[in-house]
Design brief:
- Strand 3 (60-69) and strand 4 (78-83) form a beta hairpin.
- Helix content is 24%, strand content 32%.
- The protein is built from four helices and nine strands, in the order E-H-E-H-E-E-E-H-E-E-E-E-H.
- Strands 4-3-2-5-6-7 form a six-stranded mixed sheet. The protein has a three-stranded antiparallel sheet with strand order 1-9-8.
- Helix 1 packs across helix 2.
- The protein has helices at residues 12-29, 45-52, 105-116, 174-177, and strands spanning 5-10, 36-41, 60-69, 78-83, 93-101, 121-129, 142-146, 152-153, 169-172.
- It is of the alpha/beta class.
- It binds 1-O-pyrophosphono-5-O-phosphono-alpha-D-ribofuranose.
- Residues 40-43, 67-68, 71, 98-106, 158 line the site of 1-O-pyrophosphono-5-O-phosphono-alpha-D-ribofuranose.
C-alpha cells in the first residue's frame, strides 16, 4: 500500500468483480444499440477502460473534461467545459461514465447539457457514490459502490494530481491534505 494511504477501501479484486457485474448489467440493456460512451476526464480513465472492455455491443467512445466553478448550495454553480465531445449526441443513446458523484453538480449539469443537445437518452454510470454529500437532485442509473465521506484516491482519483495510478481505492492520510 502507498505510504500516504491510511488503508485500502476497495481492493483490486473487489473493483474488478463489481465493475464487471455492473458492466454486464449495462451490456444487457444496450445489447441492440450502439451507445456513445462518454468518459469524464480525468478521474474516470481507469474505471472507463475497465468498464468498456466488458461491453459486447458496438460502442463509440468519446470524452469530455469539465470543471466546476463555485458548485455548492450557497454559490451558483457553473460548469466549465475544458474539452468537449468530438461526436454529435443528437439522437444518440449516451452513457456517461464518471468516477464519483459527490454533490451531484457535475453530473446534473452534464445530463442536462446532453439532453439539451438532443441526446435520445442519457444514462449515468458511476464507480463511487458519496451519497451523504448530495446537494443536487441527480442519481446514477448504475453505481458500483456507495461510500462514506472519506478522502479517497487511486483507480483514477487524485489529490493534487497524485495517486491516480494506484490500482486500488485507498483512504488518504489526513496528514497529507491537512
Ligand atoms: C470530480 C469527479 C466529478 C466531480 C464530482 O472531478 O470526477 O467530475 O468531481 O463532484 P460533484 O458531484 O460535486 O460535482 P474533479 O473536478 O476532481 O476532476 P478530475 O476528474 O480531473 O479529478
Amino acid at each position: 500500500m502507498h505510504k500516504d494511504c491510511e488503508r485500502i477501501m476497495l481492493t483490486e479484486d473487489q473493483l474488478r468483480s463489481r465493475v464487471k457485474e455492473v458492466a454486464l448489467q449495462v451490456d444487457k440493456v444496450y445489447k441492440d444499440k450502439c451507445p456513445l460512451v462518454v468518459g469524464i476526464l480525468k478521474g474516470s480513465i481507469i474505471f472507463y477502460s475497465d468498464f468498456i472492455r466488458f461491453l459486447t455491443m458496438p460502442v463509440e467512445l468519446d470524452f469530455m473534461a469539465v470543471s466546476s466553478y463555485g458548485s455548492g448550495a450557497v454559490s451558483s454553480g457553473k460548469l466549465n467545459i475544458k474539452k468537449d465531445l468530438d461526436r454529435d449526441v443528437k439522437g444518440r443513446d449516451v452513457i456517461i461514465v464518471e468516477d464519483i458523484i459527490d454533490s451531484g453538480f457535475t453530473l446534473a449539469c452534464l445530463k442536462d447539457l446532453l439532453l439539451k443537445r438532443g441526446a435520445a437518452s442519457v444514462c449515468i454510470v458511476t464507480l463511487l457514490d458519496k451519497f451523504e454529500r448530495r446537494e443536487y437532485d441527480i442519481k446514477s442509473d448504475y453505481n458500483c459502490f456507495l461510500i462514506e465521506n472519506e478522502f479517497v484516491v487511486g483507480y483514477g482519483l487524485d489529490y493534487n494530481e497524485q495517486y491516480r495510478h494506484l490500482p486500488y481505492i485507498g483512504i488518504l492520510k489526513r496528514s497529507v491534505y491537512e
